[in-house]
Automatic annotation (TrEMBL):
Gene Ontology CC entries for this record: plasma membrane
Localization per record: Cell membrane
InterPro entries in the cross-refs: AA/rel_permease1, APC_superfamily
Keyword Transmembrane helix: yes
Name of the protein this chain belongs to: Amino acid efflux transporter
Amino acid sequence: MDKNKAELERSLGISGAVALALGIVIGAGLLVLPGMAYRLTGTASIYAWIMDALLVIPLLVIFSWLGSKFPKADGIAGFVRQAFGDLGGTVTEVMLLGTFTLGIPAIAIGGGHYFAYAFGAGQVTALVSTLAILLIAGWFNYKGTRLSSTFQQWITYLLVFILVAVAIIGLLWGDPAQGGGVAPPSMWTHALPALALVFFAFTGFEMLSFTAEEYKNPRRDYPITVAISFVIIVGLYLALAWVTQTLLPQNHPDLATAPIAAILTSIFGGASGRIIAIVGVLIVIANVNGATWAASRLVFAASRNGLLPASWHLVDEKSHVPRQAVVATTLIFLGSACIYAIHWFSQETMLQLAGQNFFLLYVFSVLAYIRLVQHWAARLFGVASVLLCFFMMGTFGWGLLYPGALLLLGWIAVRMKKNRMTREEKEVPESPSTTL
């Protein structure tokens, strides 16, 4: 294989893809968001999880169609580029880069907190652990897709099994008198402020789209992968959100940083909490590993499309991996974690901004679907999905300034790209005419 050939190996089947999907989606969403949402909206927080789960179903139906129809490494950006041209695709790439830059390091930060909780350590240990998680994920992805996929598959299935056990233990042996309980359904509107925050837990399917180019049979396997992983994920989320708010008080000191560990500590004592904290770190490593895989493919595709340095879309001859894109992605994530360390952003703010951005990217996908689909009934379904999305966007508030800035930056990038291409065309000397 030519080392400079910008093509990825087709090696993913359904089993590996489902493990990758679970590893990408499950992470900070499962480990910290149940506690954050409960602290924010009280006993009504469970309804935010239910509303987001229902809201994401039509989006995933559309996403599955797009992913099977256009299986390319640029994912959502490729869908939008197919529908609206280079302007739409480049703007979407910039928004994705800005979103990953906050969201994936925030997941690693959650793992750092769990590691510090396990050993009773402080913020320095949490930060060092965060950086270590990002470096481990970068190393696995640098070494090759086969190694990363094998690690992802075994660790994800094991951890999902453990987390199901945690939910069952909490439901059967926890003491409901310690928690706040569940508000009556009539109070569902109290959960609206947590919608954007909780939606981050349902992000990751859009990152899965960046791996579609590596499926053995994307038209068949991509929709099946999305459906299977969604059912597993929703079941876990609702069970653990329920256990969190029924077994922990709203003022628990570890509610926003290590709620799952705090649940087991309340049942079995401190040792069990430390064990589950280690499990939490492993979940985050798997999560960041999958997310780094997806994000590096976005960087690879953005380079191939001319937005990022050209060398970043080179594919290594032996590993079949865009190693320079992996290195660049890992360095960007490490930089974001360091910015968090100097208190420019809180983890909650990073998750909230990333969650709403991912939601807006789903909206972009729906608009692309409406443009690309042929049947009128499918277009009507897309329009109904967009209207449903507008309802949720009304809860975002000031946070919409961030994606607005990214959209502007994307537009500037497109203008600069066009100006550069125009200059290059003018610099090419005209071929001398031949006189007969």
